[in-house]
Design goal:
- Helix content is about 35%, strand content about 15%.
- By secondary structure, the chain is α/β, with parallel strands linked by helices.
- The strands form 3 sheets. Strands 1, 2, 4, 5, 7, 8, 9 and 12 form an 8-stranded mixed β-sheet that branches. The chain has a two-stranded parallel sheet with strand order 3-6. Strands 10-11 form a two-stranded antiparallel ribbon.
- Strand 4 (about 130-140) and strand 5 form a beta hairpin.
- It is globular, with a radius of gyration of 21 Å.
Length: about 325
């Protein structure tokens, strides 16, 4: 993790003010923006609609694409990231891809890093007007890393470094990649930062079901030596993504490629979606938010970055559906933006 700042000290440290508790001081509201790749453009609409309701959080936490939007919001650069997202076309998306041959990922990410640094410069997290943190995963140990200090751009890049797609990012002696692997909607981080009320945002696409054990009934053309039962993948474990992907690849290639066999990209995307869904459900069950905004993005794919306009409006609609719950926990009055 990035090194902490060094502050001058005095011989007699100042006494810390007493903790008045949430009932005697202004309640600190946190907005937690979840993972979702391209679908995360919906977070822009969420933040716009929350502002229109008069809600301006003191804490913002994000994972993966949620870290990108959350960081831009905390830095006062939401207009810039929205303009960038709305201007994307399929051609421009491909223009941002710089293939990597280092083995760490398919995309080096330098072009995206340059865009982020142009927008955010050398801004440090601890200098932001709004408290911010992103989540990343440490390669090897599987540790969940909370990035709440240091260079903002590095914290963003580490949080969205999707395994196998983007190269991992090195911060403070650790190699880090996508925070969605361990904590897709990091409510725990917001509470650790002192939030009294947590409003979380979940991006849900088509096919995001609970999953269930299904007994396998072999037919004449598919008769394994023993009966098999499909069991949902274990949640909250770093190795689950690898296990899901490996299993999917084995099934695809061992059974032979028929006319309806899934392609490699489809296998990878489905493995990631299923694993993230299981982890999200497990984490939310253990630490639910005070209010949940569910953004339903339908069939929009996780790499369709050119559909920002639709996604932003879906984000606004998600807030409108949860309006009463939000007003109930945040105690804000509706007002014009």
């Amino acid at each position: 993790m990035a090194e902490a700042m060094n502050f001058p000290f005095s011989r007699k440290p100042a006494e810390a003010p007493p903790d008045l508790g949430p009932s005697q001081r202004a309640r600190r509201i946190a907005v937690v923006l979840g993972a979702g790749a391209a679908r995360g453009w919906a977070h822009i609409g969420v933040m716009r609609e929350l502002a229109a309701m008069g809600l301006r959080p003191q804490i913002v936490v994000g994972s993966s694409i949620g870290a990108v939007i959350g960081a831009c919001y905390a830095a006062g650069r939401l207009d810039g990231i929205e303009d960038f997202a709305r201007a994307l076309t399929k051609r421009r998306v491909f223009g941002l891809i710089d293939l990597s041959f280092s083995g760490g990922g398919l995309i080096g990410g330098e072009r995206l890093r340059e865009r982020l640094e142009t927008a955010l410069g050398d801004t440090r997290i601890e200098h932001l007007p709004i408290q911010f943190a992103s989540v990343a995963t440490e390669i090897g140990s599987g540790n969940e890393i909370w990035l709440s200090k240091g260079k903002l751009v590095d914290a963003i890049r580490a949080s969205y470094a999707l395994p196998g797609v983007f190269e991992p990012v090195r911060i403070g002696g650790r190699w880090l990649f996508d925070g969605a692997i361990v904590n897709p909607i990091p409510i725990t981080v917001a509470r650790a930062l002192g939030a009294d009320t947590v409003i979380a945002v979940s991006i849900v696409g088509d096919g995001a079901g609970r999953g269930a054990p299904i007994p396998h009934e072999p037919d004449d053309e598919d008769a394994p030596s023993t009966a098999a039962v499909a069991v949902p993948a274990p949640a909250g474990v770093l190795s689950s993504l690898t296990q899901s992907a490996t299993s999917a690849f084995r099934r695809q290639w061992a059974s032979g490629r028929g006319p309806d066999a899934p392609g490699m990209a489809s296998v990878m995307v489905n493995a990631f979606n299923i694993t993230q869904d299981r982890i999200t459900r497990a984490r939310l069950a253990g630490d639910p938010p005070d209010a949940m905004i569910t953004v339903k993005v339908g069939p929009i794919g996780i790499f369709e970055f050119h559909r920002a306009a639709e996604l932003i409006e879906m984000g606004r609609e998600g807030v409108r559906r949860a309006r009463e719950d939000i007003l109930g926990v945040a105690e804000v009055e509706a007002q014009a933006e």
